[in-house]
Amino acid sequence: MLTRADFPEGFLFGAATSSYQIEGHAKGGAGPTHWDNFAATPGNVVRAEDGALACDHYSRWEEDLDLVAGLNADVYRFSTSWARVMPEGRGAVNEDGLDFYDRLVDGLLARGIKPALTLYHWELPSALADLGGWRNRDIAQWFADYTNVIAERLGDRIWSAAPINEPWCVGWLSHFVGAHAPGLRDIRATARAMHHILLAHGTATQAMRAAGMSNLGAVCNLEWASPAEDTDDCRAAAARYDAIYNRFFLGGMFKGEYPELVLEGLGPHLPDRWQDDFATITTPVDWCGLNYYTRTLVSPSDGPWPHYQQTTGDLPKNSIGWETYPQGLHDFLMRTHTEFTGDLPIYVTENGMAANDVMNADGRVEDSDRVAFVSDHLNAVHAAIAGGAPVRGYYLWSLLDNYEWAFGYEKRFGAVHIDFESLKRVPKTSYHALAEAFRK
Ligand code: IFM
Prior knowledge:
By secondary structure, this protein is an alpha/beta fold. It is 40% helix and 16% strand. Strands 1, 2, 3, 4, 5, 6, 7, 8 and 9 form a nine-stranded mixed sheet that branches.
C-alpha cells in the first residue's frame, strides 16, 4: 500500500463518520427524525433497525477519538445532527446537544486532529419533514438558521465545513428511488428537493462565511456510469444516468447550470424562476469533496423518463454487491478538476467498502479485502495527482462499523469492528494497515 511518504507534502489522511449512524440518537435530548419514521415503517430497513443506540458514540466518544488518533489520521470528518441541536428543527436549541459537539471538537483538537464538519448527513427533524422537508423552499432559510447556531458555538474551532453530505442521496435516492427517508417515489418532489438542496447549500455557505468561518466546501457522491453494451442506446442511457447522478449538483454549484439531459425530465417540475437561485447556489467554496464507491452498467428501459436500467458487471463486489472499480475514482478526480472545479483543492471525503467481517476465535477481524480496496483506491488518487488533479486528502469511510441506513447494521464499513450487543470496539487488520500507511 502507498504510504504518506508517497504523497505530496501536506496531503491529509482522515476517517469519516456521521451523527445518526454512530451516536445513538435516543440519547441526549435529540428530536425525532425522518429516519426514525422511515425505519419504523415496515419494509424500509432490514429488521426495521434504527439509529436509537447505534455505536453509542454519544457516551463513548473519547474512546472513539483515541481510535482516530491511533489511526494516525490528520482529519476526522463528522457531522452534527440538526435534530440533536434543534429538536424541532427550528426555534429552541438543545444545549446538551451543542455541549456534546463542543466537547467533541475540543477532544479532536486536544489530540491534534483537524475537525471536518458536515452540517447535514440525513437526519432531518421530523417536524420539518411534516412541513414538506426538502420539498419546501423554506428549508433553505431553516437550514441557514441551524447553520448559524452551529457556527456561533463551534465555528471558531472547525478546520473545514461542508453543508450537505451527498446531495444525490438526499434528493434522488430519497425522493425518486424511495430507498432512503422520506421514501418518496415522486418526480415533482425529486425536482424540488434537488433544487432546494442546492439552494440550502448556498444559504448555509453564506451564513458560515458571514460568521467568519473559512475552508468551506461541498461534498458530492459520484458513481461511474458505463454503457452496459457498446451501442448508441446504452451510451445514451449511461449519459442520462451520469447527468442525474454526477453532473447535476456539480453543475449547479460550480457552473450555475443544470444539464439538459436532466432538465428533459425534471425541468417541468422545478419551482418557478429556479434560474434566479443560481446566484446563491454558486456562492464560492474553498474546496470540493468527492465520495466514491463504485460503478454501474446502464442500458435503456421502457417506460417514462429516465428510461434506464442498471446491472452489475463481473468485477469483484463488496458485501452490498457494489463493484470495485478504482479507475472510476481516478477518472472522477480528473473530470471534476478539468470540467468543474479547476484549481480548487479536491478531497476524497469518503471511500471504503462493506465486507462480511467476522471475528476469529482469537478475537481478530482480518479484513484483507478492505486493505486491498483502500490500497487500489490510493493508487488511483496517486495517479490523478500525477495527472495534475489538485487532490489534497483522502478520508476512509468509515472509522467504525455503523448504521448503514436501509441495510441496518448488517453491512460493515468500519476499520474498527463493533459488536452491536456489547458495543466493544476491536480494530481490524485494515485499521493497523492504515495506521502504518498514515504514520507521520
Ligand atoms: O454509509 C454511507 C454514508 O452515510 C454516506 N456515504 C456512503 C456510505 C456507504 O454507503
